Amino acid sequence: MSSTEEETLMTLPKKKFKILNLLWIILFVVGLVVSTKVTKTSLGALFANFGQFADIFLQMLHPNWSYLGAVIPLILETIKMAILGTVIGSILAFVYSLLIARNIVKNKAVTGILRVIMNIIRTVPDLLLGAIFVAIVGIGPVAGILALAICTFGIVVKLFYEAIETIDPGPIEALTAVGANKLQIIVFAVLPQVMTYFISYCLYAFEINVRASTVLGYIGAGGIGLYLQETLQVFDYPKTGTIIIAIILVVVLIDYVSSKSREALMK
Amino acid sequence: MDTSMKKLPPKPVDQKKRVAHWALAIVTILLIVWSCTGIDFGGIKQTAGQIAGAIFSGIFHPDWSYVYNGTGEDLVSQLWDTVCIAFLGTFISAIISLPFAFWAAHTRHKKWYVSRVGKIVLAIIRSFPEIVLALMFIKAVGPGSAAGVLALGFHSVGMLAKLFSEAIENLEDGPNEAVTAAGGSKTNVVMFSILPNLLPALISNTLYRFDVSIRSASVLGLVGAGGIGYPLIIALQYRQWNRVGIILLGIIIMVIVIDWISGWIRKKLV
Q1: Which pTM does this prediction carry?
Q2: Does ipTM top 0.85?
Q3: Alpha-carbon torsion angle A181, A187, A192, A194, nearest 10
Q4: Which of A127, A137, A141 minimises the CB distance to B222?
C-alpha cells in the first residue's frame, strides 16, 4: 500500500461544504446583531446593576410568613378561576372540534372557515385576552375566567380535532352501513376512541391555566396576581416573596398531580 | 323463531373500574361546583356588550394611520421590537439551557438524585411568574426592551432546558460507544457523536420556544418591558378602540407569520 493511500485512510472524509448552511449562519448572526441593537440590550448594564437585582431577590428569599393568611383565599380564587376557565373552554372546544374534523363534517368550506377562525383565536396571548376582557366586563375574576376559557379553547381544539381525524375509520363505516345518523356515529364510533385523549388534553390545558391565572390578577382579571401587583408597587418584596413561593408550590403540585393522572390515563 | 341472534351479549362489567370512574366523576363535579361558589358573577359592567361591539368594529375599522408614521412609536416598529425581544431572549435562554439540560437529564452515568434536583430547579424556574421577573429586570436595567429580553431569556430556561434534557435522554448510546471503540477521547465523543445527534432536536425545540416567546414578548409590554403590549394597554385605557383593533390585527398577523416560518424551517430540518 502506498503511503498516500494510507494517509487518505487515516483522515476522515471531508464533509461537503454547503453554501446554504453558511447563509443560515450569516442570517442568524445578523439577526442577533440587529436585535441586540433594537432592544438596546447590554450585558454590561446588567452586570453593573446586578446588585439591585440580587437585592430584590434576597428580599424575596426572606418571605413574610404572616402574610400567608391573606394570600391563601386569593390562591383558592385563582384555582377556581382556572377550573372554571378550563371547564367552559373545553366544553366549547369539544363541540367545535367535532365541527372541524374532516372525517365527521365532510363540507370542506365549513371546516376551512371554522379552522381559520380557530387559528386566529389561538394567536392572541392569554394576558392580552385578560386585558381586553377587563376592558369589556370590568375588573374581577369574570374577566380572567373568560380569558382562560378562550385560551383553553385554543389549546384543546387544536389537539382534539387532530386526535379525531386520526381515529380508526372502521367503526364509522360500520355504523354508517347499519344506517346510523350523525349523532349516533359520533356517540358510538367516534367518542369511545377519543374520550381519553380529550380528558388528557383538558388536564394539560388546566396545567397551563393554573400557571396563567396566577398573573392575570396583575392586570385586574382576578386572582392572586392582584396582590402581586399591590406588593410590587410599594416595593414590599418580602410579601411578594411569600406570594411567589405560594404560587410556585401550587403550580408545581398541580402540575405533578395532573401529569401523573395523564400518564395513568394514557396507559 | 330463534331470537337469541337478535340480542347482543351483555357488556362485560368491571366492577372495580366502574366504581373508580364514578368516584372520579363525582370528585370532578364537586370541584366544579366548588369553583362556582364565591365568585362574583354579578360584577359585569352594564356596558359590556357595547364595549365588546366597539372592539369588534374597531378590528374591522382599524386605525390605519397608526401602522407606520416614522416616529418609532407606530405599529410596525413596535412589532419589530417585539420580534427582536423574542429572538434575542430565545437565543440567551438556549445558551443558558444547555448546562441545565445536561444537569437535569437522567442518564445512566449519573446518580438519580442529581437529575431529580435539576428537574425540580427547572420546575421552580418555570413557575416563577415571568412578569415579576420582568419587573425585577426593569429595576436593574431600566424600563424598555432590554428588561424584556432578559426576563424572557431567564424564564424560558425552565421550559427549554426541560425539552433539551428530554432530547438528551432520548439519545442512544451506540454512536458514543462506536467513537470510544475507535479510540476517541471524551471531546471526540461530544464532537462526533453527541452534538451531531442532538443538534436537530435542539434547533427544533428552540424554534418551538421562539413561537412561544413571540407571544410572551407581546405580553411583557403590559408591565413596561418593551414591545407591543404597552401601546395596547394604553389604547385600552384611553378607549381608542380603532387602535386596539389595529394592534390586535398586527399581533395576529405577526404570530401567524412567525409560526409559519418556524414551522417551515422545522419541517426542512427533520
Answers
A1: 0.85
A2: no
A3: 90
A4: A127
